[in-house]
Structure formats: C-alpha cells, structure tokens
Amino acid sequence: MISVGGRLFVGVCVRVILLAPCCGLRIGFSLLLSCPRAGGGSCGLSMIVLGSHLILRPVSFNVRCSLPPSSLQIRKLSIMPGGSGTSHPSLLFRQLFEKESSTYTYLLADLSDPDKPAVLVDPVDRTVERDLNLIKELGLKLLYAINTHVHADHVTGTGLLKTKLPGVQSLISKASGAKADHYVEHGDKIQFGSLYLEVRATPGHTAGCVTYVSGEGPDQISPRLAFTGDALLIRGCGRTDFQGGDPAQLYNSVHSQIFSLPEETFLYPAHDYKGQTVTTVGEEKLYNPRLTKDLEGFKTIMSNLNLAYPKMIDIALPSNMKCGIQDESNGSTGSSL
Ligand SMILES: [Fe+2]
Fold first, then answer.
1. What is the pLDDT of residues 158-187, one digit of tens each?
2. What helix, strand, coil percent values describe the chain, rounded to 5?
3. Which of residues 79, 109, 135 is at a domain's end?
4. Average pLDDT for residues 251-264, to the nearest whole number?
5. Which residues neighbour ligand 1 (ion) by CB within 5 Å?
6. How far is CA 197 from CA 8, 146, 159, 210, 279, in A?
7. What is the pLDDT of residue 335?
8. CA atoms of 118 and 152, how far apart (whole Å)
9. Cα(70) to centroid of ligand 1, in Å?
10. pLDDT-derived band of residue 11, with 50, 70 and 90 as boundaries?
11. Residue after which a domain boundary falls, among 60, 79, 98
C-alpha cells in the first residue's frame, strides 16, 4: 500500500501512472507503480520526474510503502527528446537536428554552476544561428564546440560559432589531423562545471573518430550518455570506405569502447535517417544488424554496401579539416586540453 498526497494505492498486479500538471517550477511528475506479481517475486516502484522545461530540481515526494525498503527502486529521470531519460539534477540536455544531412547536435550544460557552462557536440554550419539563440535564451556559457570526427556530409559549425561567440574553443581528436584550438586523446576529460565528458578513441569510420562518454561516478550523469559520432548509429554504423576507414578497426572500437559500457548507457549518434533519436548499449548488442555479427561477417557486410560517392565530401572535408570556416590563426596552434 502506498500513500501519495493523501491518497492510497494498493499495488498488487497493477501498473499506475499518475500525471500532474506543471507547477510553479515548471515541473510535472509521475508515479509509476509496478507490482508484477502478488505474494512473491520482486515489486518495483519508480518515480519519474518529467521536466517540461528540462530544468530539474529535486522534487519532495512523500512515499510510504508496505513493501520492505530493499524492494524499492526510486529513480529521477529527466525527459529528453526521444523519450529517454537520465538522472542528474543539474544537467541540461538538448538533442538538436539538422535536416539536410540528418545530423544531430547535442547541447549539454551544468545548471548548478553559476556560469551554466556548456558544450556543443557536432554543430552544423547551417544551424549555428538556431544553436546560438538557444544558448543565449537559456543563459548558457558555451565553452567548447566539439566534433566527434571530420565529417564528410556537412560543414561543421565550430568555426562559425567561434566567430559569433568569442571565447568558444574548438575541439577535435589529435588523430583527426584537423585544426582546432584543442586536441583530445583517449582518456582525456572535457570538463564543464562539475560534469565532464570522457574521450574514447573509436577509429574505424575515420582514423580520428572519438566517442564522448559522460563521466563516471556518483556525482555524474546516470545512466551514462555516449555520443558516438558515426562509429555507431542506431541499428547501423558509419561507412568505412573513406577517410582512413577500416572495418576491422571499427568493429574492435565499438566492441571494446562502446559495447563495454553498461547496457543501460544511452547512445546518441551523429545521424539518423529513419527518425530514431536514441538507443542503448543493450539494444544495440541485441539488435544492431551489423555489429552483432562476428568480425568476418561484419567485414563482409561493410565491403558490400555499394554506397554512392558522398555528395558533400569534396566541399565538407577540406573545410572541416580547418573546423569549418575557422581562420588559420585560430586553428593552427591547437593544444592539448
Ligand atoms: Fe562521418
């Protein structure tokens, strides 16, 4: 039996969802009560906080339950585009889309820090104005414009961002060979406020691909988020026939650096062409039609894709090697973080 706001609920073989309208803090909440079986088995209780404004604060919620404390699981989830959730009271997260190249850009910020420091992953030149407006409206301080790799299908927005928002620094992997203010390598941490992204080298789609994974630990985002670029797409992966691509290397990168993360880790790719927004390690380990094969099967698939020559590659690559339109003086003196 559970008491919520003075109302009693008996939780046997029932699933109850309570939705409350947004309050003054623009936070609604729901209670999901799930007791799969009466008289035995496990009974679980999950509390889901829906942030209509994506600005979450702890919600005081009075829950009494006749079940033993060990049988309860209480989780706070911030709702993100795509319907997935993660728990961190000070995280602001936005998944943004550029329709011409079907590219996702990700904005993350730590709202607990007075400066609201932010990072932007894989910005696109065509949508820089949109991103800048959002950053301004939310009062964020953009620290880094980050690329997962040298893109071949769109021009990165990092150079443009730097010209319009002085102080922003571009960042890409050292192995990419591209110019930027800072170069990262496997194991580096990109700090924004009290949160950070860990750099994991995941070459194979290109030689310089990296995956950015949110930090590990009780004060970090949980479940973790991984921004996989084109190394891993939802139920797919990036092609391996350009830019130093190598199927065996990609296979090893995904299995050793991404599939080794906890199964509940949310995976956010650089693109999706079917309207999907997010997946998890567990899902891809079960359903990715390429990466669930053995290495030889994967190599066979990748060598028989018969894809067309990338239509933007001759424009995008030379530009992206200089972080978009970034001038030589900004990009030629890159340093480690
Ligand atoms: Fe790519």
1. 999 999 999 999 999 999 999 999 999 999
2. 20, 30, 50
3. 79
4. 98
5. 230
6. 43, 11, 21, 11, 18
7. 81
8. 25
9. 46
10. very low
11. 79
